[in-house]
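Complex 550.
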Amino acid sequence: MAERCAVVGVGQTKHDARRIDVSQVGLVREAAERALENAELGWQDIDAVVIGKAPDLFEGVMMPELFLADALGGAGKPMLRVHTAGSVGGSTAVVAASLVQAGVHQRVLTVAYEKQSESNAMWALSIKIPFSQTIVAGAGGYFAPLIRGYMRRSGAPEDTGIRVAVKDRLNALKNPYAHLKFPDVDFDQVANSPMLWDPIRFLETCPSSDGACALVLAAEDAVGASPGKPAWVHATSMRSEPTMFSGRDQVNPQAGKDAAADLYKKAGITNPREEIDCAEIYVPFSWFEPMWMENLGFAPEGEGWKMTYEGATALDGDLPVNMSGGVLSSNPIGASGMLRFAEAALQVRGEAGEHQVDGARRALGHAYGGGSQYFSMWIVGEARP
Amino acid sequence: MSEEQKTVKAIDGPTRLEYRYSPGRASTRFLRGMEQKKILGQKCVGCGRVYVPPRGACARCGLPTEEEVEVQDTGTIVTFTIVRVPSQNIEIELPYCAASILLDGADIPFTALLRDVPVETVRLGMRVQGVWKPDAELGPSFDNIDHFTALDEPDVPFEKFQEHL
Ligand SMILES: [Zn+2]
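Predicted structure with zinc ion bound:
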C-alpha cells in the first residue's frame, strides 16, 4: 500500500518573454521560495529536490541542474533531474510524488523551469540532420499537419481552434502570472492574426516564455505542518510510445489513451466527464483542446470539438479546461507541464483566485511532449484518498 | 547611476554544433540506394509493413525488418502544412508546403518539400512524385530527392491512407 501524498505548497514566477531581471538561478529560486512560503515551510524541512526542464539546447547550458543545486537547497540532499521533453514538468511532479508515495521521503520540493530567452527553441528543434530533409519548422511545423489530419477526420468546423484560443486568452486575463495578455481579444482578432503554419494562426500558438513552477509534496504525516488545504494526489500515470512505427496514430496517440485509462482506474473514476470538475491540459496549439478531450476520454472520438462549441470547456462550463489561460498564454516549456499540475492543485485547494472554478473538488493535470510520445498526468482532489 | 542601470542583463555566448552521424546497417543500405536513385525500404518479418527509410526494426512489433524492398518515387500526400514563418536553419522561400508523403509500396510516411504547386491547391490525397537532383550531384543522402511535385492523377480517397496520420 502506497503512502498518501499531497501538494502542500504551490509557487510560480511571473512568466514573461524575457525575464532578464533574473538569472536561471534567480528564476528557479523565485518559484521555489513561493512554494515554500505557501506551504509555510523552510528549506530545512525539505528532504529531497527533483528538478525538470526541457532539452539543454533551449538555453544552451549543459546540465543546469548542477549549478542550480545550491539555489534549490539541494546541497547535502538527494537531488535528481527528470527529462521527458515538453511533458517534463508533469513527469517531474510524478517522480517527486512517487518518492513520497514509496515512503522514501516525507517532503519533496519539485521545480521545473525554462528560460527560453537565453537560446532559441525554434533553432534547437530544427537542427539540420543528415537522414531527413530539414523542412519541419519548429514545433508548429511538426504539429500543424496532425491538426489538419484531425480536422479532416472529425469534420470539426474550421473555427474550432479560434474559439479555443479566445477562451484561453480570456482566462489568462484572470491569471496574474500569465505571460500573454490581450485585453481586447475576440473572435475576429484571433481569426485575422497571421497564419504561421497553416492551419495554425499566430494567436492560436503558444509563446516562448521564461518562467518556473515549484511544488512541495508531503507524506500524510507531514501534511499537517502546512496550514493550507492539501491537494491530495489521487492518481498519477505516465506512458510513452515510439516516435515512428507504421500505422502510428499521432492524432489520437495510444500512449495518451493508455495513460488516461490507467489514471482513471487508479483514481476509481468510471465517467471522467462527470467525476472530474475541471482539467488543465497541455494545449500548445489551440486545436489540441478538442484532440486531447477525445484522447483523455472526455468526449467520444471525433466529437471533442463539440465540447468547445457548446461552451463545456469554458470557465462556467460543465468541464472547465485551461482555467489559467493554459500553455497558449504562458509557455516556459520545461515548466509548462508542472504549471498544469499546479493549476489542478490550486483549484482543489480553492487558491486559484479569479480563475477559480466554484466547487472544484477533483481536478486533472496533463502534459505531453516530444512528437506526442510522452504523456504524464495526475488527478488531485480535496478528499483524502 | 542607479543600481538598476548597473545590472548586466545579458551577454552573448555563441555556440556552434556539428554532427558526425554513423548511419548503421539499415540506413547505410538506404543511403547507398539513394546514390543510385533507388528508394530501398525494409519489410517487417512480423507485420509485413515496409519502412522507408528503414531503421532496421519495426517499433510496432519489436522485430527486425530483414527483407529489402524497393519502393516507387511516387506517392500520396497524407497531410501537410503551409509554412509561412521563417526558421533559423531553413533557407526555403516562404510560403512553402511541408507534406507528409506515403510512397507507393511504403507503409509509413515521411515529411518532404512540395514544390511547383500553388500552396492553395495542396490537398490531402494528392498524388506526387519525387524530383531527383542531377546525377552529378547525387550522394549518400536523403536530399537526392530535391523535392516532390504534383502528378496529374486523381486524388486517393482519405479512407485509404487515414491510418497514417
Ligand atoms: Zn512489424
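The two ends of chain B are 59 Å apart (CA to CA).
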